[in-house]
Structure formats: C-alpha cells, structure tokens
Design a protein that fits this description.
Number of strands: 16
Shape: globular
C-alpha cells in the first residue's frame, strides 16, 4: 500500500495507492512499521497496520522491494519524517532505501538471501541453468536460519522411502562430511531424537516426521515468506503470519492444476500457490522437496 504526500513543513494531504494524486510519496509499509495510521484525504478511509482497508482487500499490494522517498525540499519535515527516515537534518532530492523482505525493517543495505536454502543443492547442480531465488534481507534475518537450514536438509534427506539422486548425493557428500565437523555430534543427536519406531509389515523401522519438528517448520515458513515477496504478493511477511504443516499423503490433482506451479529444479524444490480473497486467507502454498516430503502453508489475511 502506498501513500502520497508532500514532505515539507507539514503534510497537507495524504492519499492511498488507489487515490494517489501527486508524485511525492512515501511507502505506506514504512509508516505501518512505525505503527502510523493515516486517513486518505480523497476517499476518507483509514489505512494502516491496525486497520483492514477495503482497498487492500480489493487489490493485493504490489511488490515493494525498496522504500522510495521523494522530498519536495531538501529539509526533512517533522515527527513523521523522522520516524521513517531517522534523525537527519537534510536529504537529497530522492532517496532509495531498501527494506528486508522478511521483517520489513528499513535498512541502509540489504544482503541477498536464498529463498530455498543453498545447502539443498548438491555439487552436481552447480552448472544448472535454473536460477536460484534470492530476495533482499537484512543482516539479522539473513544470518538467523543457517543452523536450521542445515538441520532441515538433513531431515528431508532421511525422510521418505526411496531417495532420488540429489538426496543420495547430499547424503554421501555434504551431510556425512558435516558429521565430522565440531558440531557434527549435535547434528546426529538432533536426528536421532526425531526417530520413532514404526512397525511395517512386521519389521520395526525408524521413521522421521518432519511436520513435528519446529526447526523444520520454521524453515518452511521462511521459504513461504520469501516466495510471497518474490511473486509480488506482499512486500514482506512476518513469521507469525504464516502457518505451516506436513501435507496429507494424497493431494488432489485437480487442486494442483488450479494452483500456480513453479520449481527450482524439479527434483529438489517444487511449489504451488493460490491467492485467496483476502478474508479467509491471503494465500495458500504447497511445497515439495526431493520429489517426496511435502508441506502445506497459509498466510493469514
């Protein structure tokens, strides 16, 4: 959601994206981060984090990877400008400030975060023509998943019955070598803690259920958040807005045909998504890794 307003000594008019009337604007998402609501002058509807504007329900927000700020003068105005821009006395005519795709924080510089963890790709995929997905992220978010992503990879490789070629390559290479590292004993212990005895045709086997592991589900939610930004559905998505779980064993083919399909190497990561009407849910997701373990997810409206 965008607002438009003059940035000088006061804010004579503020309008929402649909009613935008001038070319001097500030990202409404930046205002929402600072818990700032506003009334659209042309339509009179209140917008902001604490409200559900009918404009937002009728038209999903565009992808906004940057907070662009156009100033009428080089002098920053009052409290509203300082809350968004920081304590600065003057600014150039136009400032482009990036925001994190996960937390929405306005930062001076972002880093490239892989939506699907890089550790899921074995060395044989190094020359693949399929582009890896990356989004803008702040340093804190970019570094907060590394341990969970390695655990996520290990769990997925051991989940299911017959492994495909990438799973076998990861197990024989990266994963087995990782057990020799200083934290290898902990990684093995984490896997053993997830194993449960199951009787299959009279034979006891050890099974892992990824949907019962919070570390795994945290990475699944992170992937959904990154994909929502990548496809322009939302500028950023907070973790508590996403629900994820292991998918049912059987998914209706008709349902899959009605959803948007994409992949980042079909034998490593596939996903389907569908946008909601903005009332019951914002969007629904299905993720499949290594042609076997699958997860479902939903972003709240």
């Amino acid at each position: 959601m965008l607002i438009s307003s003059y940035c000088c000594e006061r804010w004579p008019s503020i309008s929402c994206e649909r009613c935008q009337q001038d070319d001097h604007w500030v990202s409404g998402e930046a205002m929402a981060l600072n818990n700032l609501d506003f009334d659209c002058s042309p339509c009179g509807i209140r917008h902001g984090r604490s409200t559900n504007s009918p404009h937002r329900r009728a038209r999903p927000p565009r992808r906004i990877p940057f907070v662009s700020i156009r100033l009428r003068s080089i002098t920053c105005c009052g409290e509203l400008c300082r809350s968004v821009l920081g304590e600065h006395a003057s600014w150039p005519e136009e400032i482009v400030m990036p925001i994190c795709s996960y937390c929405g924080q306005v930062v001076d510089k972002t880093e490239r975060e892989h939506v699907f963890p890089r550790c899921l790709y074995p060395p044989s995929k190094g020359k693949s023509q399929v582009q890896r997905l990356t989004v803008e992220a702040c340093r804190k978010c970019n570094g907060s998943w590394s341990n969970d992503e390695a655990h996520f990879r290990n769990v997925l490789v051991l989940t299911g019955d017959t492994p495909n070629a990438p799973r076998r390559e990861l197990w024989d290479g990266k994963i087995r070598r990782s057990f020799d590292q200083p934290d290898g004993a902990k990684r093995i212990a984490d896997l053993l803690a997830l194993m449960k005895p199951v009787d299959i045709d009279g034979v006891e086997r050890q099974m892992i259920y990824p949907g019962e592991d919070e570390k795994v589900l945290r990475v699944v939610r992170k992937v959904i958040r990154g994909l929502a930004h990548h496809h322009g559905l939302l500028p950023f998505v907070l973790d508590d807005r996403v629900w994820a779980a292991a998918s049912p064993p059987e998914i209706s083919e008709q349902l899959l045909c009605e959803m948007h399909y994409h992949h980042r190497e079909p034998d490593i990561a596939e996903y389907w998504y569908e946008e909601g009407d903005g009332t019951g849910f914002h969007s629904a997701w299905l993720l499949r890794f290594f042609e076997a373990p699958s997860f479902v997810g939903m972003i709240d409206p």
